[in-house]
Amino acid sequence: MHEGAHPHPLPEAEVKPEKPRHDGPDGDRGCGDCRGRVSARPAGRRRTPAILTEDLREWALPAVLFLTVLLSWHGGLNRLVGFDVALLGAVLGAAVIIKDTAVVTWRKRRITSGVLVSVALAATVVVEDYRAGTIVALMMLIGEALENRTLRRTHKAIEGLLRLSPETALLKTPGGYLEVPVDEVKVGDVVLVRPGARVPVDGKVVSGAASLDQASITGESMPVDKTEGDAVFAGTVSVSGAVEVKAERVGEATSLAQIVRIVREAQENKGEGQKVADRFAAWFTPAVLVIAAGVWMLTGDVIRSVSILVVACPCALVLATPTAVVASIGSAARQGVLVKGGLTIEEAARVTAVILDKTGTLTLGRPRVEKVFALDGVTESEVLVAAAVAEWRSEHPVARAVVDHAARQGLHVPPPTSFEQLPGVGVRATQGGRSIVVGNRRALCLADASDPGRVAAVRRWLEDREEEGYTSLVVLRGGRPVGCLAVGDTVRAEAPGFVRELKRVGLQVMMVTGDNARTARAVASRLGVDDLRAEVLPADKAAVVSELRAEGHRVVMVGDGVNDAPALATADVGIAMGVAGTDVAIEAADIALMADDLAAVPGVLRLSRAAYRIIWQNILVFALLLNIVGMVLAGQGQLTPVASAVVHNVASVLVVVNSARLIDFKLT
Fold first, then answer.
1. What's the CA gap between 474 and 410, in Å, rounded?
2. How far apart are the C-alpha atoms of 434 and 446, rounded to whole Å?
């Protein structure tokens, strides 16, 4: 059957809404306005006062520092107050950064670029180069603010997932159906799922029939018919029909709850990534401090040591990554690709394997009539018109695909005079005094048995199309088979070239989907992917990502649906199809293709590799080589602190110029 229906309609029992309650002080079991608030709050989410404090820290403080830099250029104001106004910015910025650096260093037992920045800020105050110190602090704080804002946005993915779970369920009781909070449903309880409603639990159908959209859990492109004994998942939607479901897993044990948990854990783990600049600073910072101390001990000249610290001030190091990242992110954004942070660019540059979702990513994610088969004496147009007449009143996605295809062909489709659903088979309609049946292979049981050869030919055609991954339908007119239709999820025109390009840049390509194995194999063979995993649930998709990472691969995941969210969050880099994708997928991913163009994926990976090369050029040539030359000259007394400041500023300018080459990078 491709239209969910009741083999015997469920009784219209009275639904008794539960009275609003306020069982706890936080309202987690209260009325509709407050129910679920506590359980839905992502871990680590702060309340309003804390968020206001973060905003003041992230935006007000940099604004104050920027203002002191501007005012310091006004000589009259400096004379009026009796000191360089930039001193205020330098001291304020140094105090905040030194405090944060001390906390991070103590907690993680790891030297970062912040240590060298802290030392340099102290050195700029000693040599009274306050403006340079304020600018360094300003750059550090702005970069931190942008990064923290991006991390907070990832919590929206979890909130979006939680919204997929209904807050209430229709619990079956001896007196009828009672509307209760979903967390009061226990294993073994029976709940009613009406048309258009979401399933509140994982369980099995015990009565009724329905067509469920399971894309949020399994990623299947077509709604799946469910009858007695079939398994259903929380968060899936009844497209049509109603079923009674016996709960087998509730609350935190459901598949949807597992998705939430995996996404949350993956996002928290991603925060542990270490940037190139920090890895470099882990040995560069101690080396500079040792050299400066050694020069002081050998020469007794503190000015030489201060000059070394100033020339080694990590302006070039601080700018090395953000300038390349800003240029590459800006270039990608102009071409319809949104990248959510600098660490994403660095990770994307090093990926070795790519996992591709099928539905909505490699395919369009919506059913279309792909093939029409007409038997002798009947035209394809007649088959299509007959099918469209029968499907006219059905709301099933496959039915709409048939009707829409007939409309695109410019065919006149008269409305049926009667319509009925055939549970487990399809639909039947009457038009012009003749009965028309459209359904799956079971519909052949209703065919006229006087021509067994015709029926056998139809059966073979249906089986062949199903082996190719299509949903196949037979059309009976007056009990006689007149033709067949094959409905499928169309492969994107650019998908084959996209897979070839991924292989060309040296990536291992795997397709992972929750769709059935037969359909998945048909798509995989057309695209030539290296490996295939089918009928994979969301948690298992994330496990496949972890499996590849355990083998030493750096993995990029490309997907579009809620069911892809755990894998998108678990992968080193998650890429979501922005236009076609769900909000949850876009928030869970690190990169969103707003132009919905697969060709941009290899492009953004090439851009990331180019940015990564430039970051290392900035670090090795301008932050290391020039600094080494400058430190040698400063140690010999040939550079004063002021001259040292000029040298490190020249290095910073060269970093900016080098990074600017990424602005015009073409993705496709």
1. 22
2. 14
End-to-end CA gap in the chain: 44
Copy the structure tokens of residue 138: 């300003």
Q: Report how far residue 286's alpha carbon sits from residue 108's, in angstroms, rounded to the nearest whole number.
A: 17
Do strands 15-17 and 176-181 pair parallel, antiparallel, or not at all (unpaired)? parallel
- Spatial separation of the C-alpha atoms in residues 437 and 428, rounded to whole Å: 4
Given a cut of 70, whether residue 89 has pLDDT beyond it is yes
- Choose, from 357, 564, 572, 590, the residue flagged as catalytic: 357
Q: Residue 184: give the domain boundaries.
A: 15-22+166-253
Residues 368 and 470 in one domain: yes
Q: Are residues 280 and 329 in the same domain?
A: yes
Residue 451's pLDDT is what?
82
Tell me which of 220, 253, 286 is where a domain ends.
Answer: 253
Which of 140-144, 177-181, 316-320 is the least confident region?
140-144
Burial zone of 375 (CB within 10 Å; 0-12 exposed, 13-18 middle, 19+ buried): middle
- pTM metric for this prediction: 0.61
Mean pLDDT of 512-532: 86
Q: Tell me: the pLDDT tens digits for 349-407? A: 999 999 998 887 888 877 889 999 999 888 999 999 999 999 998 878 889 899 999 99
Tokens encoding 427? 């639909």
Evaluate whether 590 touches 339 at the Cβ level (below 8 Å).
Answer: yes
Mean pLDDT, rounded, of the chain: 78
| Same structural domain, 369 and 320 | no
**Contacts of residue 572, Cβ cutoff 8 Å, sequence gap at least 6:** 347, 348, 350, 351, 549, 554, 555, 556
Q: Are 121 and 307 in contact (CB under 8 A)?
A: no
Nearest by Cα to 142 from 334, 331, 319, 314: 319
Active site residue 357: yes
Return the pLDDT at 57: 61
